[in-house]
Amino acid sequence: MGLLSLGTPMHWDEAKQYADHVRAHGIIQFLNLWEATKNSQKDCLLWGDEIEYMVVSYDDENKKAKLSLRVWEILQELAKEEEEAANDPAKKLFVNSSWHPEYGRYMLEGTPGEPYMGLPRDLLAVERNMKLRRELACKFMKPNEVPVTLTSYPRLGCAGEGLDPHHDPHGPAARSLFVPDDIINAHVRFPTLTANIRRRRGAKVAINTPIFHDKNTPKPFIDPTIPTFNDYPEDKNAIEQGAALPDHIYMDAMAFGMGCCCLQITFQAVNVEEARKIYDQMAPLGPIMLALTAAAPIYRGYLSDVDCRWNVIAQSVDDRTEEERGLKPLKNSKYRIAKSRYDSIDSYISNDPSNKPEYNDIPLVFDEDIYKKLSDNGIDNLLARHISHLFIRDPLVIFHELLNVDDNESTDHFENLQSTNWQTMRFKPPPSKTSPIGWRVEFRSMEIQLTDFENAAFAIFIVLVTRAVLSFNTNFYIPISKVDENMKVAQNRNAVLGEKFHFRKQIFPQSRPGTPAAGTPFGSPKLSNATLPRTAPAAQNNTHSNTSGGSLAPGLDRSDEYELMTIDEIINGAPSKGFPGLLGLVNNYLNTLNIDIETRCEISKYLELIKKRANGTLMTAATWTRQFVQNHPEYKQDSVVSDRINYDLVKMIEKINKGEVQVPELLGTFSV
Amino acid sequence: MTALSSEAHNGATNGYTNGSAEHNNNNHSQSTTEVSGTSAFANNAFSHLTLYTGNTMRTGTTGQLNTSLKKSNQELVSAVQDTLLYSVDTARVKGSSITITDETSLGPLAGDRSLYEVTVKMFYLSATEGTPLSVELLTIAFADLETAMGIPDIKIDHFILSLPHQSFDENGLDESEVEAFTTEIKTSVLPLWKKLSELRQSGRIGRLGVAEFSKQQLEILKTLATAEDVNAVAPEVNQVNLQDCCVLPRDLINYAKEQGIELLTHGDAVEILPKNTFAALLQPNLPGAAASLTPNFVLKYSAFISSRGLVAKKGCVI
């Protein structure tokens, strides 16, 4: 996560005075970078995955699974290996990976040593590399430690000794009732980030996740495990000031969100136009993949009514003031802001003609001065809006030593804001003017799966979807407000089977009416987008909306272009409607290539997993986890996940990964 | 039996006619001006027809195929249908030949030729038993490809020859079947294979292959091809249907490994364009032609940008 510059960070009181400085220089840095790289062409598809692990430490005697805070030591060993491998090609074969710290002191992030390439046979390297990483991580762990790829740790923040080594909660940085500051990565950036979010907001973050009401769960559910302290003003947040909502699981620290793990995929585009196009095309898939990879049903020892981590993280870094959140009239804060700085994207950014103005239907809050500066310097409307929207946020961590840099060489200030806007997609310029790395897009919504086989399958699926999108020149555009609606619904319990999602019906923009590809199998010519009746003159460019109410020119009514579909339909298609589904697209793409049988068979395996998760033949990790808890002999049907249940769950996950146990309801007959 | 032929895009006639060509004395225009309205052609019994489908990657034809069908000609049929629906109006007529070119297939490949991997599969359709497959058709096919892809003197990276009625049979051939197949190769296929080998040896074809061959059949072809007096190449690629690909007999897999033969997957039907399908396709717009013509070959081509994993263009020529 983000940057690990060294130095002394500013307290919020000081940092806020330099917010404009960082923003202004960030924009200059972006413009300098843009000038140098706007025409860059990269001929190769290169891509990579990021896997996040939690390190668990077992106390087998007492049947407890704790989070190990020893990751810093493990990372140092891994860094040594990485360094040796850089100089020794033979070693590189075994080590081919790169390791980074993450927010949680118990978290590890691993990436492939080198990016993968884009041919089908290159995709076969993914699972191998992921397994290699897991093995390597294990090498430096104690015998009672194990890395697990769990999206949310079930008993994070529960009373009792859940951390190894133990620390009591309620440190000065997070001031959390449940977790100690020692759970945060020791590098000074992270506790500063935590504290400055709290200071800027004027209160601790308040995360409320609906509880799952089981047979014996009290109604209303008022959490009896919220402790009271009297050391800080924030101690009043939870109960006295009502931050903890009834019928919800209340959490009060960044750790509950950023301490979750996820699966992120980054790919390099051939140029900036292609990057913008992929960004837009993949954005509507964010909620779909979130529902499909759902793996986080338990928080702070309780079964929740959601299956995904997204809203938890959104709330965990929400630094908006009360005025920004619309609870008080604007006086000291500049804008009313609808979302946390961690949430789904707010606008499409491609200049592709299929991106009609009507799709950007969320009133966008952006910094007018920054917009003007960008625009005056040759940045087109959509990109200028995108960046000036990211820049409404304040920089949270500023190092004294890095305040003044050469804007011609450094992109530090730009990255400061770029990397603390956490969204479903990220549009990434080249890291520097001279870097061999080009324009990239990051796909960020997926939850991490329990096994490397599944993680590989989802990574491969996403990459193949991008290839299919570009090869078929598909159009997935729907109004961005509908993508947001999908995000909300995607996190519901069992959304993969129980919910419907807005999705575009006609995804081939160049298909002609009356043809099977137009979605009308051999029949009546159906109107494609081009022939929608015009109700009002549509704005040619997006007019920029002001912060006070959206003033987008009324355009065409696009509601006929999309409809509600199930995940099954979206992934596996609806043959009667001529809708191929994402898997249909991927398979049609693959069938066009020269692929040898072995490669084709291997890839088909991964695609089978996606298919079966989408049609309900196999459960999501979230559903499986719920079932495990509910079937556990110690479970009292009261939504409580005890230490013992947690321990058995983690042990089971370890066994599944080692292939010692078969779980057909989750993994069918696939071997992991 | 009338034949399908093609004329180069620049309007030059190659003067090709077939044996018993049937001509109707209709008042079709002698020049290559564009005519609008399908009714102009409806009653013409053309002696030659060439059709270039659109770029099926862009028209959505390939994207929306039903992938549960493993042996299908869905793609070809949809593509041809698409083109007939939209591009008959702009067909070029010269004498008794009609060339229909889909509006979306215009334009050469962007960028440097070296970026692309061009694959062509040629389905020979009409064959009389005991007669050699026409080498002439191969020349026409190459000309058609150059038109379709906008590349003169085209080099084809992968060329797959698909024989009529050839279907993978995992049960071995018995003695009489071996003999029959050997004869078939000798008389029907070898002359054509020789020509293809020349192209392979001169570099106009990168890798030369077949489709739906069993191990024995590959061996027979190899033996006959590499015989001293023939001096042709052994097959380097064998296409295997998706349905069979996960249950291929071990001996084929091993033989392929030994011989350096790539086993690639495909999803085409054995009969890619049966005569009655062809007639049914033409019927709505060109009933006259539907009655008088029989398909000679189908070319399926694609251009793939391997460094980025993108398919730039895919289409058919019939």
Automatic annotation (TrEMBL), chain A:
* Reactions catalysed: L-cysteine + L-glutamate + ATP = gamma-L-glutamyl-L-cysteine + ADP + phosphate + H(+)
Q: Where is the composition biased (Polar residues)?
A: 526-550
Q: Which domain of life is it from?
A: Eukaryota
Q: Name one GO cellular component term.
A: glutamate-cysteine ligase complex
Q: What is its EC number?
A: 6.3.2.2
Q: Name one GO molecular function term.
A: glutamate-cysteine ligase activity
Entry-linked Pfam families: GCS
Q: Which GO terms describe its biological process?
A: glutathione biosynthetic process
Instruction: Give the start-end ranges of region Disordered.
Output: 509-555
Q: Which UniProt keywords apply?
A: ATP-binding, Glutathione biosynthesis, Ligase, Nucleotide-binding
- What top-tier enzyme class does this entry carry? ligase
Pathway assigned in UniProt:
Sulfur metabolism; glutathione biosynthesis; glutathione from L-cysteine and L-glutamate: step 1/2
Q: Which family does it belong to?
A: Belongs to the glutamate--cysteine ligase type 3 family.
The protein's name: Glutamate--cysteine ligase
Q: Which organism is it from?
A: Linnemannia hyalina
Ranked from the top, the taxonomy reads: Eukaryota, Fungi, Fungi incertae sedis, Mucoromycota, Mortierellomycotina
From TrEMBL, chain B:
Tell me the pathway.
Sulfur metabolism; glutathione biosynthesis; glutathione from L-cysteine and L-glutamate: step 1/2
Gene Ontology CC annotation, any one: glutamate-cysteine ligase complex
Name the Gene3D superfamilies on file.
Answer: NADP-dependent oxidoreductase domain (3.20.20.100)
What does the UniProt keyword field contain? Glutathione biosynthesis
Source species, domain of life: Eukaryota
Tell me one GO biological process term.
glutathione biosynthetic process
PANTHER family given for it? GLUTAMATE CYSTEINE LIGASE REGULATORY SUBUNIT (PTHR13295), GLUTAMATE--CYSTEINE LIGASE REGULATORY SUBUNIT (PTHR13295:SF4)
Q: What is this protein called?
A: GCS light chain
